[in-house]
Structures are given as C-alpha cells and as structure tokens.
Amino acid sequence: MPAWYPVGSRPRVLINWDTFVAQGINAAWQGPFTDAVINAYTRWMNVAGVDVRPQFFGYTTQLPPTNQGDLLILMTPWHGGGAPNIATTLGGWNSIFIEFHRRSGVNGSLWNFVPWNAMPGQIDMQAVALHELGHALGLDHSASGNDAMFPFYGYPYRYGPFEGDVAPLKALYPDYQQNRLRQLRSSDGAATWVPVPNELTSHPHWHTRTNQSPGVAAFRGSGLYVLGWTHSNRIPTWLRNDGEKFLTRLWYYFGGERTVHGPAYASDDRGTVLWARVTNDDSGALRLSVSRNHGRSWFAAGLAGARTAGTPGLAWTRVAGQSCWVLVWADFNRSNDAATGQVRASTSFDDGATWSAPTVLHPTLKALSGVSVAASDTNRLMVALAFANTAGTANLNEIVTVPAAVVGQQLQASAPVFTGERTRIQPALAYDRARDTFVLAWREQNFNTTLGVAVLPPGAPAWSGRVWLLAHASHVAPALASSPELGETVLWYAHE
C-alpha cells in the first residue's frame, strides 16, 4: 500500500462519538476511548518514529468522506457482505476514516468492546485502533501472526507496533528527526529547574535526535553521568559527561543492534554500571551489559529471561550489606494475555551475571507501557508505571508508584499509591541521596505534553511539591538521575 499522508504532516484525528452512542456504546466511555486512540498513535510515533505524526483534534459530527488532512474515527452497525471485520479503514490520499463495527457481519452478534485493558473474551479498543492506524498510515495486512498488522484480532496489538510493522512503515516514510535531546537541572531538591545548554543539546546532527525515552545514571564518587539514547534509526548510543561537558572521544555507537523503547541505566558505589535495553526482535527480548570502569567499556551481562514491550527499569541498592541490582519490566507474552502487562522483577547479587527467577510485583497492576525504578542505598525502592486497568475505566493511564524492598531474592511490594497524574508512557524516578527523597517526573498526557515533577520525602505518605515545567514539553518519556557529588538532579527529555 502507498503512504496515505504527506511526509511531515500531522493528520487531524477526529472522533464522531455520536455514532458510537447510536450503536449502543456507553456514553461514559468517550474519554477512555479517546485515550485508547491517543495511546495507540503515541506508540506508533515512539516505536516506529516516522515523519507523520497524528494529533487529536477533538470531536465532530462529520461523516465520510473526510476533509483533506483529516483522520476520522466512527462506528457503524457492521462491515456488511457477511464479513467478520471488527473494524475497517477506508478513504484515499490525505483523507482516511476508520470504522469500528458494532456487530459481526457474519451473524449479527455484538462485539464485546472495552476501552480499557481487555481480559480474555473482551475486545481491546486500543489494540483495534493501533491496527487500524497502521492501515491509515499506509500498511497492508501482514502474513505474520507476530505483527500488529496481522488480519485477525489479537490482544497483543495494544503493545505494538512490532518489527514486522515498523520496517515496512519506515519504507514509506523517513525517520522523524526533530526531537532534539534536552537537559534540565535542579540544585534545590527538584523545586526549580533550569535548562542546561551543552555540547550535546546544541549539536546539529541527527545523531542527537530520538523518538524514545533516553536513559541516564550518575556515577558515584566521580561527578560523571552516563547518558544513553536510541537514534531515530534505532541504533543505540551512549556517552559519559559531567552534565555540561561531554567526553566526545568516548561517544559510543552500538551498530550491531537495533533497539526500541529506550534504555535504562543504574550504577553502584564502586564504578559499576548496568545497561538494559530491548531488542527490536518480535519477542521484545531484554538484554543487559555491564561496565566496571564508569562506562568506558561494556561487556555482556547475564540474561534475565525478560520480554517486554516498554522501557525497563534498573536500580542498585544494598541488602544486608550485599550489592544488589533490581530489574523491573512490563511482561510481554504472546501466549498469555492475562500475564502480558504485569510488572515483573528480578534481582542480581553478582553484578548482572545471574538473575533470580522473575516474580510478579503486584497482582492487580498492569503497565500501559514501560516501568521505572529507583533505590536508596538501604533497600528502599520505588517503582513507577502508568496504570492499564483491566477491570473498568477508573484510573486509566494514572501514574502509580509502588514502595518495595528486596526480601531474599525477591522484590516485595507495599501498597500502591495512585498519584492523580496521568501519562501515556512510563514516568521516571530517581533517588536524591543528598536529601533522602525520591523524585518523580512524567510527561503529562495533555495536548502540550508538559513535563511534571514531584518529590516524596522520607516517611511521607504521598507525593508533594508538584512543579509543572510549562516551558518544557516532551515528545518522549523523561529520564532522571541524581548526583550527590554535584548536589543536583538532572532531567533529560526530547522535543522539537
């Protein structure tokens, strides 16, 4: 199929909600369905990263044919012609509409749609929207059941697109190369933030652009950071820096891999750092590397057996005097819909050489995208995610933080805390050792994608000190790190 929208365009996504209500869809689902649609095209923009970027423009009473530059979504009774289609994408150049069908065209039975994270027996509207948006961008059906563009409905679509979807889309559109890496710094416990222009953020080359979240960690005792990101062409790269000056002679490219969802880094108190990233294979395999010299050189670490469709989280702490690494991720399992999205954790007491058997962090929590984690030196950990509710529309996309501690070889959770803030991708966490506080940052899901920050002082029951960085919007999830030597917390993100 051809590209249906011009390169560089921003198709206006319009929803005719009246047509959904007319077909018996619960009127109260308007907001959750809209979130499902925006969640779906957000994943296309972050994972595929091509130069066509849909944006939600509101609600309409318009019916097909659509106007130039529009992408209309509506509901009809059925596909017709005896077809079992759940949805159909139609239209032409720069003018597309997506029809959700209320009933099967085979026997007239109602499709069991839900706008939340579906369970077996339900049809996930975000998964359907992600598939149909692929058609709207120009993709045909795939012959592989591992792809979101496979012609038969599958719950895993909500965690797409996958390699078999991304490669043909990149053949239709060039990479989006306008998201420049940017940095903010706070020296007062995350109360105020200032931009940090440096050699990287002012670099004009496309190598400093990304469509996925960056990763950053502070090296203890050195005043240095390691910063990693994925190029628009999905080549991972990293470099060492002091927050302003970058050691460009040690700017690394890992040309032998292609990665998705952004990296995670964590460092201990001895100069060792671990790096986690997700390969672009269809399984979402998670790989780890270790450096014992402040990021100058890297070697393969052990495999935790993790598979994910989002950014993982890494942290370091001490447990009964032992060095302990904690890896968290949102599980991705094509053969187990009920397990997919569960937050899982594994620990390593030998610098990543071996990992404990994965355990589920909390039985009722599923992640919309990736997961983050931060830790004190004394076995106090915090996990953060965007909530993908499986039981209704409550708290969809809400940021949930989970206090935890390592017991034996398992990460054990305390009661989750719902923050009241919402995001479509994973939030970021850091532990500020100088102030004994956790710092949380997120990309708000409003139209401006403003960055927000909050802190959790020791013993406090809830996050406080919220700061909205109104002059700083981000197209990707942020990354945080705190340096006790420099007395600061840095926040990395990417924006045009």
UniProtKB/TrEMBL annotation:
SUPFAM superfamilies: Metalloproteases ('zincins'), catalytic domain (SSF55486), Sialidases (SSF50939). The keyword ATP-binding does not apply. GO terms for cellular component: extracellular matrix. One of its GO terms (biological process) is proteolysis. InterPro entries: MetalloPept_cat_dom_sf (IPR024079), Pept_M10_metallopeptidase (IPR001818), Sialidase_sf (IPR036278). It comes from the Bacteria. GO terms for molecular function: metalloendopeptidase activity; zinc ion binding. Residues 120-173 form the Peptidase M10 metallopeptidase domain. This is Matrixin family metalloprotease. The keyword DNA-binding does not apply. It holds the Pfam family Peptidase_M10. Keywords: Hydrolase, Metal-binding, Metalloprotease, Protease, Zinc.
